[in-house]
Specification:
The protein contains 2 helices and 11 strands, in the order βααββββββββββ. The chain has a 9-stranded antiparallel β-sheet with strand order 4-3-2-1-11-10-9-8-7. A two-stranded antiparallel ribbon has the order 5-6.
Length: 134
């Protein structure tokens, strides 16, 4: 029970802007082709939230999608930006979703009606803002 209601994240969000993309993806060792694919690309993030259960899908231009399904507080099988599979336990802290990926720390929150995602690796902070489109 937190103040944002349990459907706060549900919606479709289109990439609007980001900061430190290149520094960050190099830090986490993303291959060059994946770096190009992700740069300034209009990723649409679709989130379905049902209480503590989430389905988080990223639609890339050209038809590639990545989907992670998880329940807050339970270990789940996840996939990174680069396609690596791993297990993580996603937490909810103060209305933010918090997850530790193999080589970066990730948070997501709804701020001013936008989806704000922040990933941190070795002192490099990557921010991505997406505007709600549905």
């Amino acid at each position: 029970p937190h103040h944002q209601g349990n459907m706060a994240f549900t919606g479709k969000y289109e990439f609007e802007s980001d900061e430190n993309y290149d520094d960050f993806v190099k830090k986490i060792g993303l291959p060059a082709d994946k770096i190009e694919m992700g740069r300034n690309c209009k990723i649409v993030t679709e989130v379905v939230q049902n209480g503590n259960d989430f389905t988080w899908t990223q639609h890339f231009p050209g038809g590639h999608t990545t989907t992670n399904s998880f329940t807050i507080g339970k270990e789940a099988d996840m996939e990174t930006m680069g396609g690596r599979k791993f297990k993580a336990t996603v937490k909810m802290e103060g209305g933010k979703i918090v997850a530790d990926f193999p080589n970066y720390h990730h948070t997501a929150e709804i701020s001013g009606g936008k989806l704000l995602e922040i990933s941190t690796s070795s002192g490099v902070t990557y921010k991505r803002t997406s505007k709600k489109i549905a």
